[in-house]
Amino acid sequence: MNLDSPSNRPRLAKRARLQIDAVSGSPILLHQETVMVLNQTGYEILQLCDGTRTLREIFQDLENQYPAAKSVVSLEVLEYLEAISQRGLIEWV
After folding, report:
1. Do residues 58 and 5 lie in contact, with contact meaning Cβ atoms separated by under 8 Å?
2. What local confidence, expressed as pLDDT, does residue 4 receive?
3. What are the beta bridge partners of residue 16?
4. What are 90's strand-pairing partners?
5. Cα dihedral 71, 72, 74, 79 in deg (nearest 10)
6. What are the residues whose beta carbons fall under 8 Å from the beta carbon of 80, sequence distance 6 or more?
């Protein structure tokens, strides 16, 4: 995991796919034979992980979207990405 530098660019692993479940309308992350139901915040974070944005840019986008949570955005996003990364669902470019 490369969370040590805000200039790193996370993206979903090639075998992972974000989508909205047709039945429930919930955001999900598909990975091989696994379906992970996401909350809206997790979905929004992972949508930003497209390999073009740096961690710093992702933090800034989310801080702009949620100004009341600005003081905790970086830490919470890092924790979330670390958990997803440990499952092999994020690649770093």
Report:
1. no
2. 57
3. 31
4. 12
5. 170
6. 42, 45
What is the four-CA torsion angle of 38, 43, 45, 47, rounded to 10 degrees? 140
Tens digits of residue pLDDT in 11-41: 999 999 999 999 999 999 999 888 999 999 9
The CATH number assigned to the domain holding 64 equals 1.10.10.1150
Looking at the 3D structure of the chain, how many domains does it have? 1
Q: Pairing state of beta strands 27-31 and 34-37?
A: antiparallel
Structural domain that includes position 24: 10-90
CA nearest neighbour of 17 among 58, 39, 59, 50: 50
